[in-house]
Amino acid sequence: MPWPLIRTAFSSVADLAVVPMQDILGLGSEARMNTPGTHGDRNWRWRFSWDQIGTGLCERVRIMIDMYGRK
After folding, report:
1. What phi and psi values does residue 49 have, to the nearest 5 degrees?
2. Where is average pLDDT lowest: 11-15, 23-27, 43-47, 64-68?
3. Vertex 11, ends 6 and 13: CA angle to 5°?
4. What's the CA angle centered on 29, arms 18 and 22, to 5 degrees?
5. How many domains is the chain built from?
């Protein structure tokens, strides 16, 4: 589901499009960065790791960046 939303963000007329890395990686709620109204060890702990990048992911993002002129 995140790719239609990513495409919508990139195709926006806004000067800046921000897409959470968790969405680009297609991660679920286990990678949630923050849960509003809560505190504790789980909030703000998620970290990206290069081994999470699957084959073709960079190319997929690059194609969208080129398609929507977001260089």
Report:
1. -130, 140
2. 43-47
3. 130
4. 30
5. 1
Domain that holds residue 11: 2-67
Q: What are the distances in angstroms from CA 14 to CA 3, 44, 69?
A: 18, 27, 12
Q: Using H for helix, E for strand and C for coil, what is the string for 37-65?
A: CCCCCCCCCCCCCHHHCCCCHHHHHHHHH
Output the pTM of the full model. 0.79
Produce one character per residue of 37-59: b if its CB has 16 or more CB atoms within 10 Å, e if not: eeeeeeeeeeeeeeeeeeeeeee
Average pLDDT taken over every residue of the chain: 90
